[in-house]
Amino acid sequence: MSIDSAILNLLKLDPSNVTASGGVGGGTSSASTSSMTVKGSDGTTTKYFIKTGKGKAAEVMFAGEHQSLTAIRDIVPTLCPRSYGHGKLADTPNKAFLVTDFLDLSGRGSLVSSNTNVTTLAQKLAKLHTTPAPIPEGNEKPQFGFPVPTCCGDTQQDNTFCSSWEDFYANHRIRFIVARSRNSNGTDKQLEDMVEDTCTKVVPQLIGDKHLNNGRGVTPVVVHGDLWSGNASMGRLPGMTGPEDIIYDSSAVYAHSEFELGIMKMFGGFGGGFLKEYHRLVPKTEPVDEYDDRVALYELYHHLNHYAMFGGGYRSGAMRIMKDLDAKYGVGDKSVL
């Protein structure tokens, strides 16, 4: 197996010092993975992880993941692999690539205990979620969104910047993904009507900018965007003396920190101890008594996204969440958003 010249040029490598290996796991349904080992002049070796995919969709996906990993690592350097770059392959037409640190998962186990001297996932994530996201170029105030599109699974997300969290979540997540679902599953009037009620009634009542934190709203922070147990593990990155909690396959966005918790709830999270430790460091947003409902609202997006991608039973999960929230918050002016 040979390494494409575009990757060699990116990393300024001599091909005679490079050994490639295929099929190392990780990635998405539309991406293939491999690794390469580079031997240095001093005899030491450095290993890299490579994703490749076909067409424009892969270019967009890898550009988003590169920016996502960079945004996370700029705040918490030990939380995720470093991305070295992305682009089009030179030797294979219509294919794109992403190159990152290789994450050594040998000896992997459960997440780090809070009783050790190693920084835990909860502690690392708390640092990420209590650091304000950078103000995007050309803006004077914090924004919700992201500089480039990112992909949650194979869904290319609309990350257009918006100063309002309720506006961003209603329009660039919920309404957006239902439009995608319509393309893949056909028109579904019952689902679409429930989504519209959720956006016009529940969203302003539950996560409205004038409602959260006693009217102060929330500050956008960098979130992973697709953080469930399949995208986190104990492993060792270059420079680490032992395994630590690492996250990967990021779909980052500048968002309300609690948005991160929606997909955790959908797929079982990281255990009760994780949330207890996390919330000791990141207090729940006010009103605290609406916390569970906010997390359910954020979980809704992932049910709708999975329905758009895979169809099937994810529709019923989305409908259940919307019906439950509508029963509690389904009042309001449909002209709000």
TrEMBL record:
Coiled-coil zones: none
Keyword set, alphabetical order: Kinase, Transferase
Entry annotated with the keyword Membrane: no
Disordered as annotated region, ranges: 22-42
EC numbers on record: 2.7.1.172
Record Pfam families: Fructosamin_kin (PF03881)
Catalytically driven reaction(s): N(6)-D-ribulosyl-L-lysyl-[protein] + ATP = N(6)-(3-O-phospho-D-ribulosyl)-L-lysyl-[protein] + ADP + H(+)
Matches recorded under SUPFAM superfamilies: Protein kinase-like (PK-like) (SSF56112)
One MF annotation (Gene Ontology) recorded for this entry: kinase activity
Composition bias, Low complexity: 29-41
InterPro entries in the record: Fructo-/Ketosamine-3-kinase, Kinase-like_dom_sf
PANTHER family linked to this entry: FRUCTOSAMINE 3 KINASE-RELATED PROTEIN (PTHR12149), PROTEIN-RIBULOSAMINE 3-KINASE (PTHR12149:SF8)
UniProt record similarity statement: Belongs to the fructosamine kinase family.
Protein name per its UniProtKB record: protein-ribulosamine 3-kinase
Organism the protein comes from: Recurvomyces mirabilis
